[in-house]
Please model this.
Amino acid sequence: MTDGNFAAGSGGHGPAGAGGQASRVAPPGASIATELDAAGVPHDAMARLAELEPGKPGSIFTSDLSVNEFLLVREVGFRPLGLVLGSSIYHVGLQIGRWGSNQELDVLSQAMYHARELAMSRMEAEADALHADGIVGVRLDVEMKEFGADIAEFIAVGTAVKAEEGAGGGGVANWRNNKNQPFTSDLSGQDFWTLIRAGYAPLGMVMGSCVYHVAHQKFGSKISNIGKNVEIEQFTQALYDARELAMSRMQAEAEALHAEGIVGVQLRQHSHTWGSHTTEFFAIGTAVRPLRPDHIIERPTMVLTLDA
Model:
């Protein structure tokens, strides 16, 4: 497969361009069933969520939290409701980068962003059906499928939670973000506990994507560099620029949520099936806000282990 030969499906993109946020907001007054159906959540998922019946005596919950994470999430005032997920199997089309040019492949950037956004919106719709305040421990993965070299599944999985009275030390009327959506966070249960105890709350996972074609070196340049320690400036500039584009798009999403900052940022690089000179840079983290203006962060305590 030639560089950049990975397809883009059609899909809505937000105002931020290639990394723009697709809408996750249901129409005003829409019912939960309508929201699930509009998001593309299958009827089997609706039936599974209905069986959980969170809050009713004798009802169960499902969760991918570890035992320690579950106990810490409960200790800080949140009750797990159920495992929620979203999936999108996406076919991406054709865009070819110029052999000798550094350039973003914006069609591919939009495709990779929109496919993840579809998975996230379906996961959030499932959390809405459980009347959750947020989703913790979110994993957002990409799996290439045997259906074809240009087909991938984007999967978002997490545990929907409900804030109990007094969660976060009390005094918090609404744990949802400024778009009235359940907060999402990819922090571990331990980090979530620490964040809440320190007086902060997650607003949502924010992300940015950039698929970039890195120019090939000219033959003369390769020959002249043999045996030398020398920076390959066109490679440096290409990877630098691609990372910055991904980071700036992630920051724009955090600003739209009126966040104070982003924690737990990861900057990943994947070539997928595009070849050696086309790669995706993907930035993701959790946008956070202070719970109250007068919060005080507790001093860390020293713990001495007795293990050998």
In short: Confidence is low (pLDDT under 50) at residues 1-26.
